[in-house]
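Quick one, T. Sequence first:
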Amino acid sequence: MSEAELTKLRDEIDAIDLELLQLLARRDAVSGRVRLAKAGDDVKLRPGREADILRSLLAANKGGFPERSMLRIWREIFSASLASQGAYSTAVLTQDGGSLLWDQARDHFGAGGTYHGCATPRRVLESVAGGEDALGILPLPDPEDTDPWWQHLLVQPKAAGGGDAPQIIAKLPFWSSAGANKNGNGETALVIAMMAPDPSTNDRTLVAIDLAGEVSANRLTSALGAAGIDAALAARWHETAAPERWVNLIDMAGFTDADDARFDALSDALEVPVNQILRLGCFAAPSVIKAKGKS
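Structure tokens:
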């Protein structure tokens, strides 16, 4: 290829770059109109809508542009749009595995965001509940943890006479390569915020089933299946100071609430009284993308 032909191609790339910049400016202008329409609305983050946009882009990506790179670009676009609505910050747990959580937070909420390190899960929860930070990043529930952070979300909604507790609104990262795990690119973190979860077209719900006695994991799974609930046991916690509390955290398909009628028959099926059932949050189901180099 001649130097003249190379120059022509480079000029074309430069022109495309300018078009992209103009489109971003146009997008930001439309986003500004949305912000004006939402004046006075405290809910700025829309993780469900963002997830659906990313899913649509993945489905429309027929040109072979690397999926991971495309998703990273759009996450930065979302983050810039959110930041233009006003300053906000994110609390990130820096304890055990904190560097991975920090990376996940920056990948999802943008390299230009404001992040605060917190030494303990309780500090993350307090920071979000107290309004110091809008978002909190915490690790996935650990089945072996005898003092899990998610126990502090077991608060009845204010409408039911309870207090205020953060809700789980997202799972990070939103994408992962097939076969990845916690040590690679697999799901590693949950996002909490003082807002109701935002539904998407494909969601998961984390529900705490607080029982008055211990039941086996197999028995619980069988009872859930009999009730038509597609769910997996994510973690369990027993409050030693209250022997009558055995809390089972389930990860179930769909966007639902604790008043789902399918839970009504659980007490009879388990032959153990149900103390309470609480939704701890919902999140868009992460997408599996092609491995690097195979896009």
